[in-house]
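Quick one: structure tokens for this chain, please?
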Amino acid sequence: MPVTALLDLVAITVFVMIGRSSHEEGLTVVGILQTLWPFAIGAAAGWSIAYVLSHVRSSDDSFGHDFRPERIVPAGLIVWSCAVAIAMVLRYLLHQGVAFSFIIVATISLGVFLIGWRAVAAFVAKRSS
């Protein structure tokens, strides 16, 4: 699980660095951290929600005891949606900017990164078995 969380953090950091670079905001450590933290908090909340859901027993057992954080469903989708939604709320509350176009770009880009590495990992695992 720690490797999966680290990969999510790397994916979010790459997104932030690409965004800052494309807007010529500079790649200083402070600048990157200032842009990164709302998305990291959102992803951490997604991880927490996915963890709780994976340990809740129900008659449906949708998540089951076979929950794995590197899977796209449900963990990847939960982490992705929380990373975007919570980051946008935090950015709005702190007047960091949440233009509609930014919400669209962040949603698509983080989807590609957070779901993408999971899809590649699933493909590699399937090919190797």
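Residues 2-128 form one domain.
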